[in-house]
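Whiteboard transcription, Tuesday session. T.W. wrote the structure tokens on the left side:
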């Protein structure tokens, strides 16, 4: 239910306008929902880097080990003087595991968090003087138009961190088809994919003992309160994450601690006690299931690497 109120006008940046539009749409939906891409303001990006350091959170360290061991094989598949295009560059830590092995002609970092992107690409340019570094602040979940001067003839797109799992299957297909359209034929796609595994391992990873994931989830409410005209109170919500086995996904929610009303600009939204705001899905795949998904979008499977415990996988695909 939404009621009309009068609010003061305020000037919003394009990023804040997108946040407002998503919040007004998502809070009016049933069930209430918001896209996880709005986690990643500067503080959210910093919190995610802390999540990656938690002992329960296996994806980052496992993927980094795979990349470190497979770097020479990846370089051979990518070819000499490739251009590296990183989608969701974050702190650009994983790309450093590949740079010396690949020695690419150029690097293009793409991320939705402008400040974090600028800081990370600036550090790359300082640390790798021989590398031609470019940055584009963009929402890569939308159709991309990649700058030709940063692509070269046969680029390698890099999408680490199992971020493909944040899309539902239809969204994942749309993302891969958009990427297929943006890349020239023969391009490579190196992508991290989290694997189906024991429920306890998964649920521990998204409910770390230190509570960093909870802070990350609640940062979405902090953003709404700080950046929009809203009276939402982060203390009135709590973090919950669980594995939905039927859908093969981790779900993250913010649970309303009590019946409450939340105002955003001139609209008021009712939350029942225990009602959830669904903030993220993280789908888990089998290797064959992901290969089939990628193949339906025009990407042929070339190689795949997994850790011995089969927690995580990295796929090298070729754009047909």
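and on the right, the sequence the group agreed on:
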């Amino acid at each position: 239910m939404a009621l009309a109120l009068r609010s003061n006008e305020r000037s919003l940046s394009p990023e804040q306008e997108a946040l407002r539009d998503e919040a007004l749409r998502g809070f009016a939906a049933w069930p209430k929902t918001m896209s996880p891409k709005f986690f990643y303001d500067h503080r959210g990006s910093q919190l995610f880097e802390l999540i990656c350091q938690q002992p329960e959170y296996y994806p980052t360290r496992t993927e980094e080990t795979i990349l470190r061991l497979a770097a020479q094989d990846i370089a051979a598949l990518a070819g000499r003087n490739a251009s590296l295009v990183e989608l969701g560059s974050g702190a650009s830590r994983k790309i450093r595991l590949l740079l010396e092995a690949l020695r690419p002609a150029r690097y293009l970092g793409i991320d939705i968090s402008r400040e974090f992107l600028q800081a990370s690409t600036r550090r790359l340019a300082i640390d790798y003087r021989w590398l031609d570094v470019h940055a584009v602040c963009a929402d890569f979940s939308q159709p991309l138009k990649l700058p030709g001067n940063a692509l070269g003839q046969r680029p390698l797109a890099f999408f680490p961190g199992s971020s493909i799992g944040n899309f539902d299957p239809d969204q994942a297909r749309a993302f891969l088809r958009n990427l297929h359209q943006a890349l020239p034929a023969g391009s490579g796609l190196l992508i991290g994919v989290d694997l189906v595994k024991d429920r306890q391992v998964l649920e521990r990873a998204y409910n770390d003992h230190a509570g960093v994931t909870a802070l990350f989830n609640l940062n979405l409410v902090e953003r709404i309160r700080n950046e929009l005209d809203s009276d939402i109170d982060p203390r009135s919500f709590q973090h919950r994450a669980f594995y939905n086995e039927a859908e093969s996904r981790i779900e993250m929610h913010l649970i309303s601690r009590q019946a409450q009303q939340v105002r955003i600009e001139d609209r008021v939204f009712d939350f029942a006690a225990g009602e959830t705001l669904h903030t993220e899905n993280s789908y888990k795949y089998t290797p064959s299931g992901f290969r089939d998904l990628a193949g339906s979008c025009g990407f042929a499977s070339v190689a795949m690497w997994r850790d011995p415990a089969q927690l995580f996988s990295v796929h090298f695909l070729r754009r047909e």
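Someone added at the bottom: The mean pLDDT is 92.
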